[in-house]
Design goal:
The protein has about 650 residues and is of the alpha/beta class. It folds into 4 domains: about 60 residues, no CATH class; about 170 residues; about 180 residues, CDP-glycerol glycerophosphotransferase, N-terminal domain (Rossmann fold, 3-Layer(aba) Sandwich), CATH 3.40.50.11820; about 180 residues, CDP-glycerol glycerophosphotransferase, C-terminal domain (Rossmann fold). It is about 25% helix and about 25% strand. Strand 25, helix 10 and strand 26 form a beta-alpha-beta unit. Helix 2 runs parallel beside helix 4 and helix 3 packs across helix 15. The N and C termini lie far apart (about 105 Å).
C-alpha cells in the first residue's frame, strides 16, 4: 500500500509505517497510532505520515495538504466590512470547488485571529444563502454552493468569558471553512481575507477598547491596517492604561480615615444605644435620611409635601448626602445617632449602610420608600450565592419595619430582596409616580423643557436610557460602541432627536461626535428622568426599571438587549424577560431602526403590564403612604 506523504517529500510503502519516528493519521478520522505499530489501514484511503517532533508545527498545515492533494480550490471574497468602535461587521462568501453546500448542516465558517506566537482565537460566522441581499454578492456563484455566504459581528472589546478587550499583540485575520464531504469526512481550509484595502479608506482604522472592574480600569488602542504580503487585515492591540481606581482618588479629603470609620461604626452605634436608654421616642419626629441625594427629591419630596399640605404637626429632620462615600462630620454622626434613636418615623429611599446594624426601637418605624418601581432585575437577598450577591450573614435591609411597592403582585419579591416578612411590604404605590396623573404638572414641565431646549419641540424625541453594566458602582460602565451612531443618524435625523440618559454610575467617557450634534444630545446629568419622559415619544431601554414609569404614559418602548443571554445568566430576572417586556426586544442598531421606521412597537402589551405592576393608577400614592404608614401607625398606638 502506498501512503502519500508530502511532508516527507516522497512516497512510502506500508512496511515503513513501523518506524517509531512517525505518527500516522488519516483524512480525517482514522485512529492515530502513536507507537508507529501496525494499525488497521484501508488500502483505498490516503494517509499522511508526520515526524513526531514536527507534529505540533505540522497540524495546521494538514488541512491545506488535504485539499492540494485533492486538487480542491478555495473561492472566497469579502463583500462588506465596516467598523463601529471596536466592533467589526464582515460579510462575503467562501466555498471549496466540487464540495456542494446545499444546506447549513454541511458547513461551518469561522474567523481566525492568529498572533505572532501562533495562538489562535476563533469566532464563528453565520452561514447564509448567497441570495441574501445584505451580502451584496455581485459575482455569479453556482447553485450547488447555496450556503457559501457568511456574515459575522465581532466585538474586539469583549473577548472570551471575561469579556475583556483583545490582548496586547499583533494579529492576522483569516477565514476558516469546514465542509462535511462524502462518507461524513470533514475537510478544512484557512485562507486570508484577500484584498480588503478598499474597506479602509484612510488605509488604517483606530479605536479605543475599555474594561472596568472594581479593581481595574484598562484601556487599549486597536489599530487596523492591511497586510499587503499576507493579503489580509492586521490588528495591533496596545495597552494604554492599566490602573486601580483606588490609587487615583481625586479628592483625598473624602477618604474615610480610620478615625471617621471608627466614628461611623463603634461610636455611632454606642451613641444610638445610649440615646435609646435615656431619651424617649418623640411621636411627632420624622427623619428623612439618604446617602444618595443631597436635596429633597423623588419619593422623599412627594411624601414630605403631602404631609405639609395637611398641616400635620410633625418635627422634620433631614440627613442627606450625595453618596455613601461622602464623609459625615463627627457632629453629623452624633446628630444622626440621636435623631434615629428618638424619631418615631425614619424614612429611607435607598441603600443606607449605617442604619442596618441598629436594632430599631419597638414603637418606631423604619420605612423604606424604595426609589424603584415594579420588580425586574433580582436584587438584595434574591441574589444570594450569585456574583455580586450579598453574604447570607449580611444585616443590610433586614431591619425595615415597612417597605412600599407598586403592586401586591410583587410584594413577595421585595420581601425576599430585603429579607423581611411579606406582611411588612405594603402596596401603597410609588409616590414619585403621582406626577404621571397630574396633567397640570406634566404640561408645566413640558413647557419648561421646550423653553430651555427648543430643539425638543421641533421633532419627535427618542430617549436612550439603559442601566449600567458591572457588579456595582465601582465597576459600572456601558459599552457605547454597541450603538451604531452613524446608522442612527443617517436613518432618523430628519424626523427625530436622540437623547442619552446614561446611568450616573457609568464611569467610561462618552463623547458625541461633533458632526452629529444636531441629532444626539446628552441629558445624563439631568436629575429627574421622569420629567424627561413627558417629552419622550419613544423610550429605548434594556433592564432598567424606567419602563414601569413610561408604561403609565402608554407610549412605545424598545428593549435593547444586545447581551440578554449573559444578563439572564449573571443577573437574572423575577420574570421571563422576553414575555415580561412591554415592547420588542432588539439586539442591534439595524433592528432598532427598522422597528422605529415601521412603527412595530407591540403596544398591546402595555395595558396588561400596567395592570399587573400597579394596584392603582390614580396619582394618590403619596396619600396612601401618609395614611397607611404614618397616620395609620399613629392610630394603632392610640
Amino acid at each position: 500500500m502506498i501512503v502519500r506523504c508530502k511532508e516527507m517529500k516522497g512516497r512510502m510503502k506500508s512496511k515503513d509505517l513501523k518506524n517509531r519516528d512517525f505518527y500516522i493519521t488519516s483524512i480525517p478520522d482514522n485512529t492515530m497510532n502513536h507507537d508507529g505499530d501496525a494499525c488497521p489501514l484501508d488500502p483505498e484511503e490516503e494517509y499522511v505520515v508526520i515526524k513526531k517532533e514536527k507534529l505540533e508545527d505540522t497540524l495546521p498545515i494538514l488541512n491545506e495538504m488535504t485539499f492540494e492533494d485533492m486538487g480542491t480550490t478555495a473561492k472566497r471574497a469579502v463583500t462588506k466590512l465596516s467598523w463601529n468602535g471596536p466592533i467589526m461587521d464582515i460579510k462575503g462568501y467562501y466555498y471549496l470547488e466540487d464540495m456542494p453546500l446545499p444546506n447549513e448542516d454541511v458547513i461551518k465558517k469561522s474567523l481566525l485571529l492568529i498572533n505572532q506566537e501562533g495562538e489562535t482565537l476563533l469566532f464563528p460566522l453565520m452561514d447564509i444563502s448567497i441570495h441574501e441581499e445584505r451580502l451584496g454578492i455581485k459575482e455569479s456563484i453556482d447553485e450547488q454552493y447555496l450556503y457559501a455566504g457568511f456574515e459575522g459581528r465581532i466585538n474586539f472589546a469583549m473577548i472570551g468569558l471575561q469579556n475583556k478587550p483583545l490582548s496586547e499583540g499583533d494579529y492576522e485575520i483569516y477565514l476558516s471553512i469546514e465542509v462535511k464531504g462524502p462518507k461524513g469526512k470533514i475537510y478544512k481550509k484557512k485562507y486570508p481575507l484577500g484584498n480588503v484595502l478598499n474597506f479602509l479608506p484612510q488605509e488604517f482604522y483606530a479605536t479605543k477598547m475599555e474594561f472596568f472592574s472594581a479593581k481595574r480600569e484598562i484601556q487599549y488602542n486597536l489599530l487596523v491596517t492591511y497586510n499587503k504580503r499576507e493579503k489580509t487585515l492586521h490588528l495591533k492591540s496596545k495597552k494604554l492604561k492599566d490602573i486601580d481606581p483606588a490609587d487615583f482618588e481625586i479628592d483625598k479629603s473624602q477618604r474615610d480615615t480610620l478615625f471617621n470609620k471608627f466614628m461611623k461604626t463603634k461610636v455611632f452605634r454606642m451613641a444610638y444605644r445610649i440615646c435609646k436608654l435615656f431619651c424617649p421616642i418623640k411621636q411627632n419626629k420624622v427623619i428623612f435620611a439618604s446617602d444618595s441625594r443631597a436635596e429633597m427629591s423623588g419619593n422623599f419630596q412627594f411624601v414630605y409635601e403631602e404631609m405639609q399640605s395637611r398641616d400635620l404637626e410633625f418635627d422634620y429632620h433631614f440627613m442627606l448626602k450625595d453618596g455613601v462615600e461622602d464623609k459625615k462630620s463627627s457632629k453629623e454622626i452624633m446628630q444622626l445617632a440621636y435623631h434615629m434613636a428618638t424619631a418615631k418615623f425614619i424614612m429611607l429611599d435607598d441603600f443606607y449602610p449605617m442604619v442596618y446594624p441598629l436594632k430599631i426601637r419597638k414603637n418606631a418605624e423604619l420605612i423604606q420608600l424604595w426609589h424603584a418601581v415594579g420588580a425586574f432585575k433580582t436584587f438584595g437577598f434574591s441574589r444570594l450565592g450569585r456574583p455580586g450577591g450579598p453574604s447570607p450573614r449580611s444585616k443590610n435591609h433586614r431591619n425595615y419595619t415597612k417597605a412600599i411597592v407598586s403592586s401586591d403582585n410583587i410584594a413577595k419579591h421585595y420581601a425576599e430582596g430585603f429579607g423581611i416578612e411579606e406582611e411588612n411590604v405594603v402596596a401603597t404605590g410609588i409616590p414619585r409616580t403621582d406626577i404621571f396623573f397630574d396633567e397640570t404638572y406634566k404640561e408645566s414641565i413640558r413647557n419648561e423643557l421646550y423653553e430651555e431646549y427648543p430643539f425638543l419641540k421641533d421633532k419627535k424625541v427618542i430617549m436612550f436610557a439603559p442601566t449600567f453594566r458591572g457588579n456595582g458602582q465601582q465597576s459600572a460602565h456601558y459599552p457605547m460602541e454597541v450603538l451604531n451612531l452613524d446608522k442612527l443618524y443617517e436613518s432618523l435625523k430628519d424626523e427625530y432627536v436622540f437623547l442619552f440618559k446614561i446611568h450616573p454610575f457609568v464611569k467610561n467617557e462618552f463623547n458625541i461626535p461633533y458632526q452629529y450634534n444636531d441629532f444626539f444630545y446628552d441629558f445624563s446629568t439631568y436629575r429627574e428622568i421622569n420629567d424627561l419622559l413627558f417629552i419622550t415619544d419613544i423610550l429605548i431601554t434594556d433592564y432598567s426599571s424606567v419602563c414601569f414609569e413610561f408604561a403609565l404614559l402608554n407610549k412605545p418602548m424598545l428593549f435593547f438587549g444586545y447581551d440578554v443571554e449573559e444578563y439572564v445568566q449573571t443577573r437574572d430576572f423575577y420574570y421571563n424577560f422576553q414575555s415580561f417586556i412591554p415592547g420588542p426586544l432588539v439586539r442591534d442598531t439595524e433592528t432598532m431602526i427598522d422597528k422605529i421606521e415601521k412603527q412595530t412597537f407591540e403596544m398591546h402589551k402595555i395595558e396588561p403590564f400596567v395592570k399587573y405592576f400597579f394596584n392603582e393608577t390614580d396619582g394618590k400614592s403619596s396619600e396612601r403612604v401618609v395614611d397607611q404608614l404614618i397616620l395609620g401607625t399613629e392610630e394603632e398606638n392610640i
